[in-house]
Specification:
mainly alpha; 3 helices; 83 residues; elongated
Length: 83
Amino acid sequence: MDAAALELAATRAALESLHGTMAIARALVLAGREVDLTGLDGDAGRLCAAIACLPPGAGAQLHLPLLELTEELDRLRRALEDA
């Protein structure tokens, strides 16, 4: 695996990790638990920086996972609003 492929794999893993964190937070909110979202903005910022550093065109492979991340963020927002 070359360096560009490793960068892409690491960025995809970070994206999936953030998605998982938000899904867990949403589940906790739906269960009536309080959640501390401190740090999510930093994680999102680091993910954006990693995507910006990918080789030209590599980010296109993250289009669907990024859409799914956005959808999870919207679900978390709605859960927080309804809580």
